[in-house]
Amino acid sequence: MKGRVVLTGVVALTMMLLQQAPGQGGAVSPEYREVLSILGLNGDYADGVLKVSLTRTDLAVAVAGKRIPAAFGLGGWLAFARGERGMDVMMGELVVLEDEVGPVVSALLSNGLEVTALHNHFLREDPRVMFLHIHGMGVAGSLARQVKAPLDLIGRVRSNDAAQPRPALSLPRGNLNVDRLNRIIGFTGVVIPPVYKVVVGRTDLEVRDMGAFVNARMGLASWAAFFGTDDSALVTGEVAMLEDEITPVIAALRANGLEVAVVHHHMTGTRPVVIFLHFWGDGPAEALATGFRAALDELGKQ
User: Fold this and answer.
1) Mean pLDDT of the chain
2) Helix (H, G, I), strand (E, B), or coil: what is residue 159?
3) Nearest to 133, CA basis, from 270, 275, 223, 267
4) Beta strands in the chain (DSSP E)
5) What pLDDT, in 10s, does the model give residues 84-132?
6) Is the overall model pTM greater than 0.90, yes or no?
7) How much is the pLDDT for 162?
8) pLDDT at 55 over 60
9) Beta-carbon contacts of residue 295 (< 8 Å; ≥ 6 apart)
């Protein structure tokens, strides 16, 4: 059936799609090729931004007793963009377990990088997962060297509790009518098996960080990720808001039965101030998409 995709929980395929080949979407400069070489990771260049995926495929996480795939909400990243005086701005979001927070934060600070936010995305998840936002400015290769040691700590720090085996929860096959979701949301997303994700940039805002234009690839975007079937799906996502949009967005989400997990900032020192809200929902896919669209409708009214 046109518009219907079967989504399977194959981790290898997820990793292949998330870790795109260097240069996809645009030519990578020698400076950014050096960044990828130092990090030992792949990335893609588009819209003036080198983006590197740091998705935690090593974690088995359940939210409210339901196993989630890595592509559904465990996606960390680094982004590099040219700023003032020939320097680069690096922003990123690292996915860390509670026991990893302290060592990673210390390593970031000792390597001259900033921590700009630390927060959750989910409620009732097991194990507890936190999201750490980082920032730096300098020569691209130097920034990559500064962040390499903190990245190397992720996945290596485990407490006895974190090492305890969790109940086995399988990833069910997904079957979503993405055409229908696209019509409701008004934007087209991408399939990252077993997840369907829609990203909507805040193109109505001009936000700069030390001369670098902060666009959707630098994190200035709302998004929703869907997993499951038309009749029984999960959604998680984020809404990028101005300060006077916070209450209307929360009201729209709650009116459509979606849970608000956290409201926080990601960036410091930028104007206008952008606040981010993470939400979660469980139910028919069309109802979840309607809730996300209702939140989007509250943006940009002023």
Assistant:
1) 88
2) coil
3) 267
4) 4-7, 44-46, 49-55, 61-63, 66-68, 75-82, 88-97, 114-119, 125-126, 129-138, 174-177, 190-192, 195-201, 208-209, 212-213, 221-228, 233-241, 259-265, 275-283
5) 888 999 999 999 999 999 999 999 999 999 999 999 999 999 999 999 9
6) no
7) 52
8) yes
9) 222, 239, 249, 252, 253, 258, 279
Tell which residue, 40, 102, 43, has the closest CA to residue 77. Answer: 43
Integer Cα distance of 218 and 254 in angstroms:
28
- DSSP class of residue 217? G
Q: Do residues 122 and 62 lie in contact, with contact meaning Cβ atoms separated by under 8 Å?
A: no
Q: What is the pLDDT of residues 137-151, one digit of tens each?
A: 999 999 999 999 999
SS3 call for 169: coil
Domains of the chain in start order, with CATH, are 18-163 (3.30.1460), 174-296 (no CATH)
Q: Exposed e or buried b for every residue in 272-283, given b needs 16+ CB within 10 A?
A: eebbbbbbbbbb
For residue 282 the two structure tokens come to 């469980």
- For the chain, the residue count is 302
> 20: pLDDT confidence band, cut at 50, 70 and 90?
very low
Query: For residues 51 and 43, is the Cβ–Cβ distance under 8 A?
Result: yes
